[in-house]
Amino acid sequence: MPLPRLNIFEKMRGLYTPVIDIRRRVLSAVARMIVKDLPPTHIEYIPYQIIDKDTPTYRESVFKERAVVRERVRLAFGMDLKEFGAHGPINDDDVIYSLTDKKVIKKPIVNVIKVGCERCPEHSFIVTDLCRGCIAHPCTIVCPKNAVSIINNRSHIDQDLCIRCGKCEQVCPYNAIAYRERPCAAACGVKAISSDENGFADIDQDKCVSCGMCIVSCPFGAIAEKSEIVQIITALKGKKPVIAEIAPAFVSQFGPLVTPGKLKGALKEVGFTDVREVAYGADVVVLNETEELVELIKKREKCGDESEPETKCRTFIGTSCCTSWAMAAEKNFPELSKLNISKSFAPMVEIAKKIKNETPDAIVVFIGPCISKKEECFIPEVAEVVDFVMTFEELVAIFQAFTMDPTKIPPEKEMNDASALGRGFPVAGGVAKAVLEQTKAIIGEDIDIPIVSADTLKECMSLLRQVKNGKLDPKPLIVEGMACPNGCVGGPGTLAPIKRAQREVKKFAKKAKWKKPKDYL
Amino acid sequence: METISVKICCGMNCLVHGGQELLDLVENDPKIAKNCLIEGVECRETCGDLGKQSPVVEINGKIYPKMTAERLIDMLYKKIDGD
Ligand code: SF4
Ligand code: SF4
Ligand code: FES
């Protein structure tokens, strides 16, 4: 019997593929170049270091393999991709601009490396070799468009007539009809990926919310994000204090031997002056959202009065900590979102404000599982307090470049900045639960507060649709959305298997000094 | 039969270049988990600069660089089945 089907996010999870290998080797090679102060011309050697064979390993030729690596190197420097077809060296004038401790990256964060894209066919139903040309041929009978016919004793789908309803696939006794999808498009919950005129994947930047799920789903490694590691390393080597704020999903990401104290020690060894928990920011967000919820509950009775026409009153608190979710909600359900998504900034911003307050000249680096936080930094208020964003994966490239192994570092005193609820944010459902518990602690247990949550943008959007159409009973008061599968622990910049990460995040939360944000804030 | 000692290197180089996945793989394979003593261990000093030789696995005291999931499963199953 076949095993249960995995969804697009589960298929390659937990497997170390050559795609991941190349991605990580490019990052560590670029980081090494900056750590060692090699001249800008060194950039041209990196593709040859990564692809060092004379015969192709991954693609039809070593030249194409290197061409893809060249684009990855540009992105790792934070530069824009070379326009497809614009031939020239990697090291054009941009490289000089990238060698700085100032922010250089511009939109878009997520890019298709066209030379690496294999132009996978768009979604369609196709007849496979399993077709036996059976006498019953239910496929032709159920097709509402007469797109399926029997040609040469075999079922045939006319792709021009087919409306992709999937009825034929459902009824075939041999499972001979397959649904074929582009992995990148299948992973995109906001339908941002289509094809350009040559059939290469193309991201509609008006729709894209930089969740990064297409990056980890393309089996050809043809989609990648810009990195800030070059500017971060430059900052680490400079004179200003550089302070790391580390997202609560960090626990267990660096393997079973790297305790939070060792991680902190290693970060200090490579030049960070201090390490703070973003979970503190999460606690602030819990309080903000709790306040909004308490007010909503108070005002609820008045809704429908002349002073508050029904269409104007807030009906739920939408969480705001996942940037991609908040952006997707805003783009696809503008009115509903404007009214209901919390105005609170993300945890990353709240802790950054505190750091900048205490150390005004600090360079603040957010380290997390998340790519959309890079996008969030284009908001001017956010850019004021958060200087750079990098993923756990990028951090390891920096460790490697410094030949710094956190397992060999004597542990520092563990961070202790946050409550258990704040530390529980990165597991799907954690945010809603935190706001619920904190609210009940304030207004009492007996009030009924229904919550709903969704993970992956596709599920999030369908949840919002249901909320909008009043399909949910009871009507939720807290709506949590997370763009990544299973929450931040499933983010595109993570290193650890999801199950282990979930378990360890919860364990670390239990060790917190406080139970709830209100216990100390 | 003697318990097979399987040490998966969890030093930084090996960890990011497949070690983490190997550890998860062997821990979640019931046959391997039952017959082997699995440990995540510190750098075996075999990884090379930037982890060129990673991931490294040590089986019954012998070091194997550039391990892959396919090869590891195959080796351990053969050892467990005794051929
Ligand atoms: S999955 Fe990758 S290779 Fe295929 S169309 Fe999408 S970007 Fe191109
Ligand atoms: S929204 Fe996410 S999956 Fe869709 S194109 Fe943007 S980064 Fe890729
Ligand atoms: S990190 Fe595994 S041998 Fe060095």
Describe the structure.
The complex is a heterodimer of chains A (521) and B (83). Chain A has 521 residues and is an alpha/beta fold. Chain A has helices at 8-11, 18-35, 46-50, 62-76, 94-98, 138-142, 167-171, 183-187, 213-217, 229-237, 260-269, 278-299, 323-332, 334-340, 347-358, 372-376, 380-385, 392-401, 420-423, 430-443, 457-468, 498-510, and strands at residues 110-112, 124-127, 148-151, 154-157, 177-180, 193-195, 201-203, 223-225, 242-246, 274-277, 317-318, 363-368, 388-391, 451-455, 478-482. Chain A has 3 domains: 8-119 and 194-229, no CATH class; 124-180, Alpha-Beta Plaits (2-Layer Sandwich), CATH 3.30.70; 239-521, no CATH class. Chain A is built from 22 helices and 15 strands. In chain A, α21 (457-468) links the parallel β14 (451-455) and β15 (478-482). In chain A, α2 (18-35) crosses α4. Chain B has 3 helices and 4 strands. The model of chain B has no long low-confidence stretch (mean pLDDT 95). The A-B interface holds A 14-16, 21, 24-25, 28-29, 32, 254-257, 393, 396-397, 399-401, 403-408, 495-497, 500 and B 10-13, 15-25, 40-43, 49-51, 55, 69. The complex binds iron/sulfur cluster (2 copies) and FE2/S2 (inorganic) cluster.
Features:
heterodimer, A: 521 residues, alpha/beta, Alpha-Beta Plaits, 3 domains, four-stranded parallel sheet, three-stranded parallel sheet, 22 helices, 15 strands, 39% helix, B: 83 residues, alpha+beta, Glutaredoxin, four-stranded mixed sheet, elongated, binds iron/sulfur cluster, binds FE2/S2 (inorganic) cluster
Topology, element by element:
The complex is a heterodimer of chains A (about 525) and B (about 80).
Chain A: H1 8-11, H2 18-35, H3 46-50, H4 62-76, H5 94-98, E1 110-112, E2 124-127, H6 138-142, E3 148-151, E4 154-157, H7 167-171, E5 177-180, H8 183-187, E6 193-195, E7 201-203, H9 213-217, E8 223-225, H10 229-237, E9 242-246, H11 260-269, E10 274-277, H12 278-299, E11 317-318, H13 323-332, H14 334-340, H15 347-358, E12 363-368, H16 372-376, H17 380-385, E13 388-391, H18 392-401, H19 420-423, H20 430-443, E14 451-455, H21 457-468, E15 478-482, H22 498-510
Parallel strand pairs in A: 9-10, 9-12, 11-15, 12-13, 14-15
Antiparallel strand pairs in A: 1-8, 2-5, 3-4, 6-7
Helix pairs in contact in A: 2-4, 2-10, 2-18, 12-15, 12-20, 13-14, 13-21
Chain B: E1 4-9, H1 12-27, H2 30-35, E2 36-41, E3 57-59, E4 62-64, H3 69-81
Parallel strand pairs in B: 1-2
Antiparallel strand pairs in B: 1-3, 3-4
Bound molecules: iron/sulfur cluster (2 copies) and FE2/S2 (inorganic) cluster.
The site of one iron/sulfur cluster has 13 residues of chain A, from helix 8.
